[in-house]
Amino acid sequence: MSMHPTGASIYVGKRKRGKGRKPTPHPNDSSHPRANKRAPKPSANQSPLVAGGAMMMLVNCSGCRTPLQLPHGAPCIRCAICGAVTHVAAPPAAAPSPDPARGAVAPSWGPPPPAAHGRKRAVICGISYRFSRHELKGCINDAKCMRHLLTTRFSFPDDSIIMLTEEQTDPYKIPTKHNIRMAMYWLLQGSQPGDSLVFHYSGHGAQQRSYSGDEVDGMDETLCPLDFETQGMIVDDEINAALVRPLPHGAKLHALIDACHSGTALDLPFLCRMNRSGQYIWEDHRPRSGVWKGTSGGEAISFSGCDDNQTSADTSALSKITSTGAMTFCFIQAIERGQGTTYGSILNSMRATIRNTGGGGDSLAGGGAVTSLISMLLTGGSASTGGLRQEPQLTACDTFDVYAKPFSL
């Protein structure tokens, strides 16, 4: 144990705890570094990103295939993850190359126009994997509830929220790997001091062996897009590079990851644990290699559904009405019941609700009634399933007093 400059106790290393949101890994997962990939030349792999009326270009890194934002007019770019230099041709004047997996035209959405500091933007992703062996029942419900929470409780403009679900008619709002990547870059594009950004994901999560040497336990955490069996998963290194590292001073990002193995899905440097005395301490998860996993001065905080080696439930045991993700339900319930004043109070409320759902789902912390927010959105019914074994986690780019720091979006 060592002492962090803030005075908080720091424990080094990841500890493991232990049927949820975890798919069967595909043997040909293209996100695996040893998978058999077809790698087109970078100049044929460019995608447009509209930002404030200008056209930014995304190119895939020639080394690790991570999408990179090419500065206007630049002939090459160096990847912050693997260090490879990718040389590109001049951006095409005609329409961009369509997503090869969908063969569609340019996306119909772009970031909000430049405005005064203090903009609010969100990406909400809910994946049900319909008609597959990985199907989940509650993820689209989660997405709808989260959108309602952001617009009604936290004044997020409706047109500043990107929804990625299978219900969308726009092909670029289907939660494929390509579209989730583009949405993550949209979220951070042009971010400024005072901005409040939210990334919510409800779907499958998994783990795979890490070959970069930056994971204490040797495993990367991943998110599973709708097409993960053919296009591969989104690895935590890429999520960190897209959502965390570019965050500028004065901007704030909150991630809510309702998936299996999601404890450190953003690869943030510090994870909040409760010690044997019932006190929250911060574990130091900074890579021993020295790779920077923090922001560019901004503040990044993540709530996740469970520890890295736990699973997250898709269940009706909490709402009593229909299926939801346990983590999403408990987070919204904490806000609805006035328990969202600090990060510590939210985390305590979420953990207590899940812990008290063990006996068939009939006993909930603070009462068994579904919150008004969720009841107004969800209909239907199914038997409760109870017996939840997951512990929501809190990670951050820096340590803080979880009971003193006010929560706000």
UniProtKB/TrEMBL annotation:
| Assigned GO CC terms | cytoplasm
Quote the protein name from its UniProt record. Answer: Uncharacterized protein
Query: GO molecular function terms here?
Result: cysteine-type endopeptidase activity
Please report the stretch or stretches of sequence annotated as the Zinc finger LSD1-type domain: 61-85
Q: Where is this region: Disordered?
A: 1-48
Q: Which domain of life is it from?
A: Eukaryota
Q: Which residues form the Peptidase C14 caspase domain?
A: 119-395
* Family (UniProt): Belongs to the peptidase C14B family.
Species this chain originates from: Brachypodium distachyon (Purple false brome)
Which InterPro entries does this UniProt record tie to the protein? Metacaspase, Pept_C14_caspase, Znf_LSD1
Per UniProt, the ranges with Basic residues bias are 13-24
One GO biological process term: proteolysis
